[in-house]
Write a structure and sequence with these properties.
CATH superfamily of the largest domain: Bira Bifunctional Protein, Domain 2
Number of strands: 19
Largest sheet: 8 strands, mixed
CATH class of the largest domain: Alpha Beta
Number of domains: 2
Strand content: 15-25%
Distance between the termini: 45 Å
Strand order of the largest sheet: 7-11-12-19-18-17-16-15
CATH topology of the largest domain: BirA Bifunctional Protein, domain 2
Shape: elongated
CATH architecture of the largest domain: 2-Layer Sandwich
Helix content: 25-40%
Amino acid sequence: MTDLAHPDRLRKLADMRAAGVDPFPPRGVDALPIAQVIAGGGSIDAPGPLAAKRVQIAGRMLALRDFGKLAFAPLIDRTGKIQIGFAKERLPDWWERRKWLDHGDLLGIEGELGRTQKGELTVWATKVDILAKCVAVPPEKWHGLVDIEQRYRRRYVDLWAKEGVREVFEKRARILAGVRRFLDARGYVEVETPILQPLYGGAAARPFVTHYNALDSDFFLRIAPELYLKRLIVGGMERVYEIARNFRNEGLSARHNPEFTMLELYQAQSDYRGMMELAEGMIESLAREINAGTQIHFRGADYDLRAPFVRRGYIDLFQEHAGCAFDDQVRVRAKARELGIKDPGSFPKLMNDVFEATVEEHLQGPIFVTDYPLEICPLAKVSPRDGRLAERFELFVGGMELGNAFTELNDPQDQYQRFAEQVASKDDEAPSAIDIDYVQALEYGMPPAGGLGLGIDRLVMLLTGQDTIRDVLMFPALRPLTGEACATEPAAAPSIAPGR
């Protein structure tokens, strides 16, 4: 046992075993969901079909109130909470064994559905089975774990000890199901692409590196599935998507976790305008499904996710908030020094750092920022209206980037040249080699296409009103305790937000 196991609870465990009662029986009970029992109970004035009937339920018992010949405790399962009544007259042979019970125990209850004198719906127990003894002392009632880091570290407690936590993750599951329904209905095919990749690409980020023993080669955990998905467009699949786990060896913040979930999709015969319409339509649809409307509350402000969203150009926003043209090197560098931004050695990256520092906080949205400088878009087509720009957008709500999309570059010569410039840049987030196989795929011909990457974790934050990404991840990365193998927890966030 660890130091969490309480001596008094361990003593009860021993007493149960001495009495021939298994505190961890191998079989559960055939239980009705608590929500179904509550619905079947009806009301005081209109009793339901289960009123005064025998029911069997199972769940976790919360704090027990013992009055000598009568005791009460809430019981919770994944569907709801109901009061259990323990009466000595109904359980004469078991009554002394109630002292084995503790807050947190998992119980199977068989009894009659009725009400107390105050009218509270109650299952009056006639049979009690301990399904698993809780030997660690959980937090009291619904206050949950007070230490926020302990909430994340012990999510298995947080899910039932703090009201509302489980509902966030149930909504997350509904959001993922809604994404799939939305895309499947539009002819998209869900696919899977490699997580272990011989070359990393599709985004600007530091990868995690591992060694593949059978091939005696270093491989990378993917930072994005983009280049594999576009190979499928070359192959004629035309509409594909993946809900992908991606990995970036970067810092943590309220918006960043080194392991995260992205939706990435590609559509032949589309472009970044088509991706705007798809993105805003999907987000509006999800908001209506999850929240019964398009109005949401996020980080202290209200937003309306009804399409269409506002569209603003990158260069106009840069001029408006940074006070200079995006390609004026002298003034951009001066602005960076004024803001205390360290020169990364690449003007395009410095320029985008200035954009992030001066513009993004103003992007309350929902808003599409369109037509990014070509130098920071190695996988997007050049704009036919302005050769300095690429057909790319990023989607923001509440100053937080949610998505990134391009009109996809399909010229193999242009793509090879841009890859070569990336490799030559010596940027520590750039690929170390040209992905020749991807260029060869383009040489077979990729149709005009639009592509979209959407951060699922951030979308869940938005639709559930959570301030930090940790509150929508079951097990976020944390600083390791002694003997644990977890990710480290540096304070700083990466300069390039997770995206495609």
